[in-house]
Amino acid sequence: MKKSIIDPMDLSVEEISDLLDLANDIMKDRTRYQDVAKHKILATLFFEPSTRTRLSFESAMLSLGGSVLGFPNANVSSATKGESVTDTIWTVSCYSDIIAMRHPKEGAPRVAMRRSKVPLINAGDGGHNHPTQTLTDLLTIQREKGRLNNLTVGFCGDLKFGRTVHSLLKALSRYEGVKFVFISPEELKLPEYLKEDLLDAKHLEYKEVRTMEEVMGELDILYMTRVQQERFFNEQDYLRLRDTYILDLNKLELAKKDLTIMHPLPRVNEISTEVDDDPRACYFKQVENGRYVRMALILTLLSLDHEVERL
Ligand code: CP
């Protein structure tokens, strides 16, 4: 595989399966992979803030013996002088072997990709896509549930702007027997284009509700999300909507004993910290899995995925 990853649908189900298998193998003993990407350079270009995605990409490359360069915000790049994203990527692709890029504008990585001389990975573009979070989420679901099919998945919170929701929904739509439950206020419902072009077009089973309580007992996966303050035009709307859903131990009493609670993080108030010690809480497992699945993706895009014998 020698290509850029802009949208989760850029990966076939078979390619995703291979990536998850490789991530699982790395997790068995990562020291076997510690020199595989020696002399390779990852550039991380973050035009928008990040903790997990940027640092997990960097940790992944360093764990493979490679090197990392880049910038954590656009203010220290020539973007401040008016340089286009395309020229920035063209330039950085002369200095690196692979690029991970986050940008607040939807579609920016796809435009930039055309001038990149090396594989480009979308590390989140506006409210659009976040394919490597999706790989992290799929690895977590597979490890927790032992499958990616026959699941009832509830997405809760900001389904309008949440790119992790849009990406994971697209990816899961390809697995048999997955049902979706969307829990959001009216103002933060899933965009129509995803309902019409994806769910309705594929005749997938889904419903939209307003409260967590009415569906909690049905869910195998509960995917909580933060209300995306940075994508609101109006501060008052954000303040009114931000605490609509708070998962606490009382609400969890309605849930299945083997519910998997996920959140791409960062959280604000959506999950009470009292839930953190519940065995169903998997959001910090997602954080950890993100490093290994990004190691697998880097190896695969650099065609280094068969360098180590699998355990
Ligand atoms: N999940 C995620 O994208 O987190 P960061 O914004 O911290 O990278």
Automatic annotation (TrEMBL):
Domain Aspartate/ornithine carbamoyltransferase carbamoyl-P binding: 3-142
Catalysed reaction, written as an equation: carbamoyl phosphate + L-aspartate = N-carbamoyl-L-aspartate + phosphate + H(+)
Class of the enzyme per the UniProt entry, highest EC level: transferase
Keyword Transferase: yes
Species the sequence originates in: Kandleria vitulina DSM 20405
UniProt: carbamoyl phosphate binding residues: 52-53, 102, 130, 133, 265-266
Xref: InterPro entries: Asp/Orn_carbamoyltranf_P-bd (IPR006132), Asp/Orn_carbamoylTrfase (IPR006130), Asp/Orn_carbamoylTrfase_sf (IPR036901), Asp_carbamoyltransf (IPR002082), Asp_carbamoyltransf_Asp/Orn-bd (IPR006131)
Protein name: Aspartate carbamoyltransferase
GO biological process, one term: 'de novo' pyrimidine nucleobase biosynthetic process
Documented EC number(s): 2.1.3.2
Classification of source organism: Bacteria, Bacillati, Bacillota, Erysipelotrichia, Erysipelotrichales
Annotated binding of L-aspartate, by residue: 81, 163, 226
PANTHER family: ASPARTATE CARBAMOYLTRANSFERASE, ORNITHINE CARBAMOYLTRANSFERASE, MITOCHONDRIAL
Keyword line: Pyrimidine biosynthesis, Transferase
Gene: pyrB
Family: Belongs to the aspartate/ornithine carbamoyltransferase superfamily. ATCase family.
Keyword Oxidoreductase: no
